[in-house]
Amino acid sequence: MLSDNDIKRIIEAGLDKKADYVEVYIEEHNARSVSLLNSKVIRSGSVFDSGIGIRLMSGVNTVYVYSNDFSIESLIRLASDAADSLKDSNSSVDFKLSNSVRTEPFIVVKDPLLVAKSTQVDFLREASDYALGYNPLITQVSSSLVSEDRLSRIINSKGINKEEMQSRVRLTFSTIATQGNEKQTGRVSPGWQQGYEVIENYPLKEKAKSCCDQAIRMVSAGYAPSGMMPVILCNGFGGVIFHEACGHALEATSVGIGNSCFKDKIGHQIASSCVSARDNARIKGEWGSYYTDDEGNDSSDLLLIENGICRNYLVDELGSRRMGMPVTGCSRRQDYSYAPTSRMSNTYIEAGNEKPGDIISDTEYGLYCADMGGGSVDTSTGEFNFAVNEAYIIRDGKICEPVRGATLIGKGQEVLMNIDRVADDLELAAGVCGSLSGGVPVTVGQPTIRVSKILVGGRK
Amino acid sequence: MDISAAKQFMKRLIDKSTSYGFEEAECCFMQDYSMSVDILNQEVSSYENSNEQGISFRGKVKGQMGYASTTSFEDSAIDFLLKEAYENCLVLDDEDEEFVYCDDNDKELFHDQTTPSFSKNTCASFSVVGLSLEKALKDIDPRVTAVDYLSISCGTGPVIVMNSKGLSSYKDSDYVSIFAEARATSEGVVKTAGNYWFGNDVDLFDEKKFVDVLGKKLLGKFGASSIKSGTYDIILGNEAFISLLSTFFGSFSSFNMQKGLSLLADKEGTVIASEALTLSEEPMLDKALLKIPFDSEGVRTKSKNIINKGKFETALYNTKTARKANRQSTGNGFRSSYASSVGILTTNIVIKPDSLDLEGLCKEVNNGIYITDLNGLHAGVNAISGDFSLQSEGYLIKDGLLVRPIEQITVADNFFEILKKIRVVGNDVINYPVDMGEFFSPSIVIDSVSVSGDE
Fold it and tell me: In chain A, which residues have their Cβ closer than 8 Å to the Cβ of B408?
């Protein structure tokens, strides 16, 4: 691995040419995984990879090079050649390599990479066996457990020299119910930045039952209706709607180049007054958390929307240069093969004061979304789409028959203004967000909310 | 790392595997050199250059195949790979046997498809192309206010498969791709559209054609509104059909069929689609940019009809699923990266075109919808049942003519029902990269599809 002097030489090679900012990112990644299908272990894998990414900037002009060849002479040549393609910054940077500061994982009691695979298999198999015997309609049960350690070191010409170890575990359990040609899925996929102890304490058998029940209910459900109607979104993963419809459009990646529907909106109302939202990277043990971002800045608990008013954007180094705003510690990347950019961490709508039951009983007719799938957004136009995994018709203030195949579409600006009820049952859920700097672990969240009208795409 | 050093490392790895107790062993080396240039506001906003390599090992102990991978080529990496793969074998209890392949006639396949034009790809040459393209896009119309994303990239790198049965095969290829997304604004309404090109030689890039297509897509969206919910006959545009087909193509995987994850299980030899549909896989297709001579298991790839005039002739197999089905692999056992296990992926998929162009298809439909874009395919589908409900855009067809753009609608149906409801296949073939190769498809006409709108 590279010495401090090697890294200093790489940074100086960039600064000697035209760059006004040079950053070196070194990563070591260890992962273990095990997958079961119908209680049989069909896959068990191990990965160790490492690499280095070097980013140089001259104003907003950026060069990024990466490799997993750590020979120092080739890296200096790479940095020097890369700097040649920059515009000359005409600036002189006084660079001194400071002493390294290391941040440790949030909470890791039992290193998951050291837990025997057979122990992990036993844990998954017990719940798989249970699900397979739960009901004859359950025809497939899949489960997997992925554990990883990621050691990142960030050194840049501003004097930052930091190292952070992040350990994550993610569990996925899914069931398929079959009835004739119809197959429907029930699924949970929690993730944490914690040790194996969180897995040992996770009530997987109970969750397996929920997955079976969800798949069985949906396999006999009719198709969802079509048209504009009130929609109640459950707590937890329902927060994907905020993540897609609003969060991405608050990232400097889009605001900084003017292609966000929320550009120039700081201090303006962009959501209903009952909506406040945050991006908090510092929640202990959460899947999307980190102390140090991938530019070496301290992460933050950032208020994005306060009572409907836009308060902050998510700003990284490049966004800061483009927008003239300070960085917010939100720069992230999947791994060394991606240049970092502004991304969300744990993003959620804050809890309100109402009870979920009151919101449902006050709704004459609409759709109750009990489990959401993923979605996507065009940040320029605000147009989004979300899949609904499990939904029910609300009739006369009561949750009635299940319906399947619903998609919600609309424009983020309009939907945020149409949120008219917010409950007090805030819950968070893990996911992976894909964007310019790859797939990063994020948490989405919200309490139960109602949108007064949204277009439901069904088949009836 | 040069190729001979990589081969020596692989040989040492295979040779040492027996001392760890492996009965069979295989390793796959992949290297990737890539470069990309992004343009924003008439400047090179970003330049990326990379050199990556990795190796994956799989070996069999007592009938179970364990995997491990790394980017390290130190001597210690050999012991890491063997130790981890061995320990992984010990927890497996897969009922379907995986094995290492070798055909005495195809032991040393070699296919170097790299082109001399690759050496022309530099930051400077890409900058010239990119700056000109950005200017041309902005000059389409005063309503085009920005080109938010414009990237030109290229890549190359060898793949080597070696195993303990004497197989040692090599392939290499290269590509150049260009993607741009432009934004237009009119009376406060914002629209975006993108276009994509790829080939081997950036000098063959036709800027005018690219700009014309993107401009038509983008400006054609102004004036869009929703429509009434109902059932419509639709033209599913070539791009939209490729995105839908590739999303559900896992149903043609024998792995999914054998595991009860595809409704096409036990349907080989039966009619599953309209007679209008013939769909083949052609790994070495002349007009394809990427020709795929062998898969990640070293099996020579083969041309075959998957659907012939509506009849499902064959699923896609790797060696493991083929053995279970008591037949030969179809050469579809691929790793998507060095760190992936061997799954089932496609090479070049071709929908056989017919005679009608888009104008002819509109006349065929007479009254209905032309769908140009389907969004949310990663979420709004049930990959097993085939159900989908997707945010869509397109045009209203009235009396055989495109009369106005449509937005804020969803199209909902079932993939397997759609295959049966194909009335006509057009001739407007486009190609788009999917998995290991490309999908080639024209637009198609589908009868009676559910559409939701709020008009």
Answer: 383, 409-410, 455
